[in-house]
């Protein structure tokens, strides 16, 4: 009987000790979390309340404030909605925002309110328009936001006066097609003008190249950033012709021109052709 009581007492002590240990451990963990939370500092940051496309004129309803940890706050982030909207005119979105993305000054217009296409032109760059047709415009499949290479076909610099095609510029962004800077679908649209984003130097090259040849757009995959190092393509490369053969075919000898004789009869002057003669020298005969 005593042994049974001793056994029960021992079990009670063991389970009691385990329970006390578990309670102590839980209390210590909770205290640790509380201390860690107390040490974790946060800062309010203004974010987009929903997706904001380019050209959106910001209003309070477009924005909200959330807490960021100090080590995750982006440089230049706003701490209040009032600071974002502080100005004579409301700022305009110049780079698309995703919902809950921090609002940054670099993605907003500054100074005078900008709308439409001008809102898409970063400082230091230019919008340059070039004429295209359904062939040179990639069959109408070039849309705003696409990336293209510009090919130039001309006879400039060729001794044989034969046209060649070169890659003039690479990786230019399409800002607009005709009068549109946005697109709602992926349907092909045949246009007459494509507006490209370029540096001032590239804009000059595009302007001059239109006067001495033809421009064609080559559409790139949106993730393709590799440089095009392909060679210039000439007519001789298309069929593997020898340049001398091409020259002989492309520049045939001109047909012979008849010889003329100028006959003067008093005050009357008449030009007469001499049959069988090919010299173009003019001979004057007075009668």
What can you tell me about this protein's structure?
With 287 residues, this protein is of the alpha+beta class. 23% of the residues lie in helices and 26% in strands. The protein has 5 helices and 11 strands, in the order αββαββββαββααβββ. It has helices spanning 2-39, 81-84, 200-209, 235-239, 243-250; strands spanning 42-48, 63-69, 126-131, 147-154, 164-177, 193-198, 214-219, 233-234, 259-265, 268-274, 283-286. Strands 3, 4, 5, 6, 7 and 8 form a 6-stranded antiparallel sheet that branches. The protein is elongated. Residues 280-286 have low confidence and may be disordered.
**Number of helix segments?**
5
Hey, roughly how much beta strand do the residues contain?
25-35%
* Cα separation of the termini: 168 Å
Give the C-alpha Rg.
40 Å
Structural class by secondary-structure content: alpha+beta
Principal-axes geometry comes out as elongated
Low-confidence stretches: 280-286
Question: What descriptive keywords fit this protein?
Answer:
23% helix, alpha+beta, disordered C terminus, three-stranded mixed β-sheet, 287 residues
Short structural summary:
With 287 residues, this protein is of the alpha+beta class. The protein is built from five helices and eleven strands; from the N terminus they run H-E-E-H-E-E-E-E-H-E-E-H-H-E-E-E.
Blueprint of the fold:
Blueprint: H1 2-39, E1 42-48, E2 63-69, H2 81-84, E3 126-131, E4 147-154, E5 164-177, E6 193-198, H3 200-209, E7 214-219, E8 233-234, H4 235-239, H5 243-250, E9 259-265, E10 268-274, E11 283-286
Parallel strand pairs: 9-11
Antiparallel strand pairs: 1-2, 3-6, 4-5, 4-7, 5-6, 5-8, 9-10
């Amino acid at each position: 009987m005593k042994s049974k009581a001793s056994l029960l007492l021992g079990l009670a002590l063991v389970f009691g000790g385990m329970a006390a240990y578990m309670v102590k451990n839980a209390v210590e963990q909770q205290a640790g979390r509380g201390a860690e939370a107390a040490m974790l500092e946060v800062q309010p940051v203004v974010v987009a309340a929903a997706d904001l496309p380019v050209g959106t004129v910001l209003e309070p309803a477009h924005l909200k404030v959330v807490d960021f940890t100090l080590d995750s706050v982006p440089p230049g982030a706003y701490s209040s909605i009032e600071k974002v909207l502080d100005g004579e005119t409301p700022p305009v979105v110049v780079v698309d925002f995703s919902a809950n993305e921090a609002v940054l000054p670099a993605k907003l217009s500054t100074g005078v309110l900008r709308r439409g296409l001008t809102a898409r032109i970063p400082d230091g760059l230019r919008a340059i328009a070039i004429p295209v047709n359904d062939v040179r415009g990639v069959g109408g499949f070039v849309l705003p936001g696409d990336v293209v290479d510009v090919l130039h076909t001309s006879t400039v610099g060729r001794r044989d006066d034969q046209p060649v095609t070169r890659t003039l510029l690479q990786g230019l962004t399409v800002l607009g097609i005709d009068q549109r800077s946005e697109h709602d679908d992926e349907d092909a649209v045949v246009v007459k003008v494509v507006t490209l984003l370029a540096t001032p130097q590239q804009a000059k090259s595009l302007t001059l190249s239109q006067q001495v040849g033809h421009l064609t757009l080559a559409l790139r995959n949106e993730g393709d950033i590799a440089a095009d190092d392909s060679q210039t393509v000439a007519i001789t490369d298309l069929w593997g012709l020898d340049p001398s053969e091409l020259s002989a075919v492309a520049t045939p000898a001109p047909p012979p021109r008849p010889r003329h004789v100028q006959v003067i009869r008093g005050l009357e002057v008449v030009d007469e052709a001499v049959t069988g003669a090919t010299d173009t020298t003019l001979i004057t005969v007075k009668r």
